[in-house]
Amino acid sequence: MTTKAGFIALIGEPNAGKSTLTNRMVGAKVSIVTHKVQTTRARIRGVAIEGDSQMVFVDTPGLFRPRRRLDRAMVAAAWGGAADADIVVLLVEAHRGMTDGVARILEGLAELPRGRRVALAINKIDRVEAPALLALTEALNERYAFERTFLISAEKGHGVEDLRRWLAEELPEGPWLYPEDQIADLPLRMIAAEMTREKLTLRLHQELPYQLTVETESWQERKDGSARVDQMIYVVRDGHKGIVLGHKGETIKAISKAAREELEEFLGRKVHLFLQVKVRESWLEEAERYSEMGLDFRDGNA
Questions:
Q1: Which residues are annotated as a binding site?
Q2: Among 121, 163, 207, 260, which residue has the least CB neighbours within 10 Å?
Q3: Superfamily of domain 4-170
Q4: Whole-angstrom distance, CA of residue 162 vs CA of residue 181
Q5: Annotated binding residues for GTP, as ranges?
Q6: Dmax over Cα atoms in the chain, in whole Å?
Q7: What is the pLDDT of residue 249?
Protein backbone atom coordinates (compact mmCIF):
# COMPACT_ATOMS: atom_id res chain seq x y z
CA MET A 1 0.00 0.00 0.00
CA THR A 2 1.37 3.41 -1.00
CA THR A 3 0.75 6.02 1.65
CA LYS A 4 0.67 9.79 1.26
CA ALA A 5 1.25 12.54 3.80
CA GLY A 6 1.77 16.26 3.86
CA PHE A 7 1.00 19.67 5.32
CA ILE A 8 -1.96 21.76 4.19
CA ALA A 9 -1.96 25.43 5.23
CA LEU A 10 -5.30 27.20 5.52
CA ILE A 11 -4.85 30.95 5.06
CA GLY A 12 -7.21 33.88 4.79
CA GLU A 13 -8.49 36.97 6.55
CA PRO A 14 -9.54 36.78 10.21
CA ASN A 15 -12.91 35.04 10.61
CA ALA A 16 -12.76 33.47 7.12
CA GLY A 17 -13.56 30.08 8.66
CA LYS A 18 -10.11 28.48 8.85
CA SER A 19 -10.56 27.13 12.38
CA THR A 20 -14.05 25.83 11.60
CA LEU A 21 -12.73 24.04 8.50
CA THR A 22 -9.80 22.56 10.46
CA ASN A 23 -12.16 21.19 13.09
CA ARG A 24 -14.53 19.74 10.48
CA MET A 25 -11.70 18.09 8.56
CA VAL A 26 -10.23 16.56 11.71
CA GLY A 27 -13.61 15.63 13.19
CA ALA A 28 -12.75 17.07 16.57
CA LYS A 29 -12.24 20.47 18.10
CA VAL A 30 -8.54 21.28 17.93
CA SER A 31 -8.76 24.95 17.02
CA ILE A 32 -10.34 27.88 18.81
CA VAL A 33 -13.55 29.06 17.13
CA THR A 34 -15.29 32.29 18.17
CA HIS A 35 -17.22 35.12 16.56
CA LYS A 36 -14.32 37.46 17.26
CA VAL A 37 -11.48 38.01 14.80
CA GLN A 38 -7.80 37.17 15.33
CA THR A 39 -8.47 34.41 17.84
CA THR A 40 -6.06 31.83 16.41
CA ARG A 41 -2.59 32.82 17.56
CA ALA A 42 -0.44 29.75 16.97
CA ARG A 43 -0.23 27.53 13.90
CA ILE A 44 -2.51 24.81 15.21
CA ARG A 45 -2.04 21.47 13.48
CA GLY A 46 -4.93 19.07 13.13
CA VAL A 47 -4.40 15.59 11.68
CA ALA A 48 -6.96 13.83 9.47
CA ILE A 49 -6.95 10.50 7.62
CA GLU A 50 -8.57 10.03 4.21
CA GLY A 51 -7.97 6.58 2.70
CA ASP A 52 -4.20 6.06 2.48
CA SER A 53 -3.47 9.76 3.01
CA GLN A 54 -2.64 11.58 6.23
CA MET A 55 -3.44 15.28 6.02
CA VAL A 56 -1.86 17.66 8.52
CA PHE A 57 -3.89 20.87 8.56
CA VAL A 58 -2.08 24.01 9.63
CA ASP A 59 -4.69 26.49 10.86
CA THR A 60 -2.82 29.76 10.66
CA PRO A 61 -3.67 33.10 12.30
CA GLY A 62 -5.77 35.36 10.09
CA LEU A 63 -3.87 37.65 7.74
CA PHE A 64 -4.53 41.31 8.49
CA ARG A 65 -2.67 44.63 8.65
CA PRO A 66 -0.60 44.30 11.86
CA ARG A 67 -0.31 47.10 14.42
CA ARG A 68 1.36 45.57 17.49
CA ARG A 69 4.19 43.15 18.13
CA LEU A 70 1.71 40.31 18.73
CA ASP A 71 -0.07 41.15 15.45
CA ARG A 72 3.21 41.08 13.50
CA ALA A 73 4.23 37.75 15.04
CA MET A 74 0.83 36.26 14.15
CA VAL A 75 0.99 37.42 10.53
CA ALA A 76 4.57 36.10 10.20
CA ALA A 77 3.38 32.73 11.56
CA ALA A 78 0.59 32.63 8.97
CA TRP A 79 2.89 33.28 6.01
CA GLY A 80 5.47 30.90 7.48
CA GLY A 81 2.83 28.17 7.56
CA ALA A 82 1.97 28.83 3.91
CA ALA A 83 5.60 28.79 2.80
CA ASP A 84 6.27 25.46 4.55
CA ALA A 85 3.15 23.63 3.36
CA ASP A 86 2.76 21.12 0.53
CA ILE A 87 -0.58 22.66 -0.43
CA VAL A 88 -2.05 26.07 0.48
CA VAL A 89 -5.80 26.66 0.63
CA LEU A 90 -6.97 30.28 0.57
CA LEU A 91 -10.34 30.77 2.25
CA VAL A 92 -12.44 33.72 1.12
CA GLU A 93 -15.82 34.63 2.61
CA ALA A 94 -18.45 34.54 -0.14
CA HIS A 95 -20.53 37.41 1.25
CA ARG A 96 -17.54 39.72 1.78
CA GLY A 97 -15.94 39.02 -1.58
CA MET A 98 -12.84 40.79 -2.86
CA THR A 99 -11.92 42.92 0.14
CA ASP A 100 -8.73 44.96 0.44
CA GLY A 101 -7.44 42.26 2.76
CA VAL A 102 -8.05 39.50 0.19
CA ALA A 103 -6.32 41.61 -2.46
CA ARG A 104 -3.24 41.93 -0.22
CA ILE A 105 -3.21 38.16 0.38
CA LEU A 106 -3.35 37.52 -3.38
CA GLU A 107 -0.29 39.75 -3.76
CA GLY A 108 1.42 37.82 -0.97
CA LEU A 109 0.72 34.48 -2.67
CA ALA A 110 2.85 35.62 -5.58
CA GLU A 111 5.80 35.79 -3.15
CA LEU A 112 5.55 32.12 -2.10
CA PRO A 113 8.29 29.70 -3.24
CA ARG A 114 8.02 28.62 -6.89
CA GLY A 115 5.90 25.55 -7.44
CA ARG A 116 3.83 26.02 -4.28
CA ARG A 117 0.38 24.57 -4.94
CA VAL A 118 -2.54 26.81 -4.07
CA ALA A 119 -6.28 26.06 -4.12
CA LEU A 120 -9.17 28.44 -3.50
CA ALA A 121 -12.06 27.68 -1.16
CA ILE A 122 -14.91 30.17 -1.20
CA ASN A 123 -16.58 29.72 2.19
CA LYS A 124 -20.02 30.55 3.61
CA ILE A 125 -21.63 30.02 0.19
CA ASP A 126 -25.08 29.76 1.82
CA ARG A 127 -24.98 33.52 2.37
CA VAL A 128 -25.00 34.60 -1.31
CA GLU A 129 -26.92 33.93 -4.51
CA ALA A 130 -25.42 31.87 -7.35
CA PRO A 131 -24.72 34.80 -9.77
CA ALA A 132 -22.67 36.65 -7.12
CA LEU A 133 -20.79 33.44 -6.33
CA LEU A 134 -19.93 32.89 -9.99
CA ALA A 135 -18.73 36.48 -10.38
CA LEU A 136 -16.51 36.22 -7.30
CA THR A 137 -15.05 32.90 -8.50
CA GLU A 138 -14.14 34.45 -11.85
CA ALA A 139 -12.69 37.61 -10.27
CA LEU A 140 -10.45 35.68 -7.88
CA ASN A 141 -9.19 33.30 -10.56
CA GLU A 142 -8.35 36.24 -12.81
CA ARG A 143 -6.10 37.61 -10.06
CA TYR A 144 -4.30 34.33 -9.27
CA ALA A 145 -3.90 30.99 -11.07
CA PHE A 146 -5.47 28.65 -8.49
CA GLU A 147 -5.16 24.92 -9.20
CA ARG A 148 -8.74 24.27 -8.16
CA THR A 149 -11.68 26.23 -6.79
CA PHE A 150 -14.06 24.78 -4.20
CA LEU A 151 -17.37 26.23 -3.05
CA ILE A 152 -17.94 25.26 0.57
CA SER A 153 -19.66 25.93 3.86
CA ALA A 154 -17.19 24.87 6.56
CA GLU A 155 -19.86 25.31 9.23
CA LYS A 156 -22.54 23.21 7.50
CA GLY A 157 -20.24 20.83 5.65
CA HIS A 158 -21.32 21.66 2.10
CA GLY A 159 -18.56 20.89 -0.42
CA VAL A 160 -16.06 19.96 2.30
CA GLU A 161 -15.84 16.29 1.27
CA ASP A 162 -14.87 17.24 -2.30
CA LEU A 163 -12.09 19.45 -0.97
CA ARG A 164 -10.97 16.76 1.45
CA ARG A 165 -10.79 14.06 -1.25
CA TRP A 166 -8.86 16.32 -3.62
CA LEU A 167 -6.33 17.26 -0.94
CA ALA A 168 -5.82 13.62 0.04
CA GLU A 169 -5.22 12.64 -3.57
CA GLU A 170 -2.78 15.49 -4.27
CA LEU A 171 -0.44 15.02 -1.29
CA PRO A 172 3.05 13.61 -1.99
CA GLU A 173 3.77 9.93 -1.43
CA GLY A 174 5.52 9.13 1.82
CA PRO A 175 5.13 7.64 5.30
CA TRP A 176 2.59 9.09 7.69
CA LEU A 177 3.93 11.83 9.92
CA TYR A 178 1.91 11.06 13.06
CA PRO A 179 0.45 7.99 14.80
CA GLU A 180 -2.90 6.96 13.34
CA ASP A 181 -4.88 7.91 16.47
CA GLN A 182 -3.33 11.34 16.94
CA ILE A 183 -5.53 14.29 15.93
CA ALA A 184 -3.27 17.22 16.83
CA ASP A 185 0.40 17.89 17.43
CA LEU A 186 -0.21 20.54 20.05
CA PRO A 187 0.69 19.48 23.59
CA LEU A 188 -2.36 18.90 25.79
CA ARG A 189 -1.22 21.79 27.96
CA MET A 190 -1.57 24.19 25.01
CA ILE A 191 -4.89 22.71 23.85
CA ALA A 192 -6.25 23.19 27.39
CA ALA A 193 -5.01 26.80 27.46
CA GLU A 194 -6.64 27.48 24.07
CA MET A 195 -9.95 26.10 25.33
CA THR A 196 -9.90 28.43 28.32
CA ARG A 197 -8.89 31.39 26.14
CA GLU A 198 -11.82 30.64 23.83
CA LYS A 199 -14.26 30.79 26.76
CA LEU A 200 -12.73 34.09 27.87
CA THR A 201 -13.04 35.46 24.33
CA LEU A 202 -16.69 34.45 24.08
CA ARG A 203 -17.56 35.85 27.49
CA LEU A 204 -15.64 39.14 27.42
CA HIS A 205 -16.01 41.99 24.97
CA GLN A 206 -14.16 44.70 23.07
CA GLU A 207 -10.34 44.77 23.18
CA LEU A 208 -9.82 42.77 26.38
CA PRO A 209 -9.55 39.28 24.80
CA TYR A 210 -6.57 40.43 22.72
CA GLN A 211 -4.79 41.77 25.82
CA LEU A 212 -4.87 38.53 27.76
CA THR A 213 -3.27 35.14 27.41
CA VAL A 214 -3.66 31.79 29.16
CA GLU A 215 -0.87 29.42 30.15
CA THR A 216 -1.16 25.94 31.64
CA GLU A 217 1.26 26.06 34.56
CA SER A 218 0.90 22.47 35.74
CA TRP A 219 -0.76 19.22 34.69
CA GLN A 220 -0.95 16.43 37.24
CA GLU A 221 -2.27 12.96 36.44
CA ARG A 222 -4.15 11.47 39.41
CA LYS A 223 -4.41 7.83 40.47
CA ASP A 224 -8.17 7.82 39.87
CA GLY A 225 -7.61 8.62 36.18
CA SER A 226 -8.55 12.29 36.46
CA ALA A 227 -6.22 15.24 35.87
CA ARG A 228 -5.59 18.42 37.86
CA VAL A 229 -4.90 21.37 35.57
CA ASP A 230 -3.69 24.73 36.90
CA GLN A 231 -3.80 27.71 34.55
CA MET A 232 -2.75 31.34 34.77
CA ILE A 233 -4.60 34.12 32.94
CA TYR A 234 -2.32 37.09 32.29
CA VAL A 235 -3.89 40.53 31.82
CA VAL A 236 -2.22 43.92 31.36
CA ARG A 237 -4.19 46.06 33.84
CA ASP A 238 -5.81 45.82 37.28
CA GLY A 239 -9.12 46.83 35.76
CA HIS A 240 -8.93 43.88 33.39
CA LYS A 241 -8.41 41.52 36.31
CA GLY A 242 -11.66 42.74 37.84
CA ILE A 243 -13.51 42.17 34.56
CA VAL A 244 -12.19 38.61 34.25
CA LEU A 245 -13.08 37.79 37.86
CA GLY A 246 -16.53 39.42 37.68
CA HIS A 247 -18.87 40.29 40.54
CA LYS A 248 -18.10 37.95 43.46
CA GLY A 249 -16.03 35.82 41.07
CA GLU A 250 -19.05 34.86 38.96
CA THR A 251 -17.37 35.43 35.57
CA ILE A 252 -14.26 33.37 36.31
CA LYS A 253 -16.44 30.58 37.76
CA ALA A 254 -18.55 30.43 34.59
CA ILE A 255 -15.46 30.45 32.36
CA SER A 256 -13.80 27.74 34.44
CA LYS A 257 -16.92 25.55 34.31
CA ALA A 258 -17.29 25.89 30.52
CA ALA A 259 -13.58 25.24 29.87
CA ARG A 260 -13.51 22.26 32.25
CA GLU A 261 -16.57 20.66 30.62
CA GLU A 262 -15.09 21.01 27.15
CA LEU A 263 -11.71 19.65 28.25
CA GLU A 264 -13.44 16.68 29.91
CA GLU A 265 -15.33 15.95 26.70
CA PHE A 266 -12.12 16.22 24.68
CA LEU A 267 -10.17 13.91 27.01
CA GLY A 268 -13.04 11.59 27.91
CA ARG A 269 -12.28 11.78 31.65
CA LYS A 270 -12.65 13.91 34.77
CA VAL A 271 -10.70 17.17 34.99
CA HIS A 272 -10.14 19.46 37.99
CA LEU A 273 -9.44 22.91 36.52
CA PHE A 274 -8.09 25.78 38.64
CA LEU A 275 -7.77 29.29 37.18
CA GLN A 276 -5.88 32.28 38.55
CA VAL A 277 -5.63 35.81 37.17
CA LYS A 278 -2.41 37.81 37.34
CA VAL A 279 -1.67 41.36 36.19
CA ARG A 280 1.45 41.42 34.05
CA GLU A 281 1.61 44.77 32.29
CA SER A 282 4.39 43.84 29.91
CA TRP A 283 3.36 40.33 28.82
CA LEU A 284 2.88 41.52 25.23
CA GLU A 285 6.62 42.31 25.17
CA GLU A 286 7.89 39.10 26.84
CA ALA A 287 9.51 36.44 24.66
CA GLU A 288 8.44 33.64 27.02
CA ARG A 289 4.75 34.43 26.53
CA TYR A 290 5.16 34.17 22.74
CA SER A 291 6.91 30.81 23.06
CA GLU A 292 3.95 29.52 25.09
CA MET A 293 1.67 30.54 22.21
CA GLY A 294 3.84 28.85 19.60
CA LEU A 295 4.92 32.18 18.08
CA ASP A 296 8.38 33.61 17.44
CA PHE A 297 8.99 36.76 19.51
CA ARG A 298 11.48 38.01 16.91
CA ASP A 299 8.78 37.98 14.22
CA GLY A 300 7.11 40.80 16.11
CA ASN A 301 9.94 43.23 15.42
CA ALA A 302 8.81 46.22 13.39
A1: 12-19, 59-63, 123-126
A2: 207
A3: P-loop containing nucleotide triphosphate hydrolases (3.40.50.300)
A4: 23
A5: 12-19, 59-63, 123-126
A6: 61
A7: 92
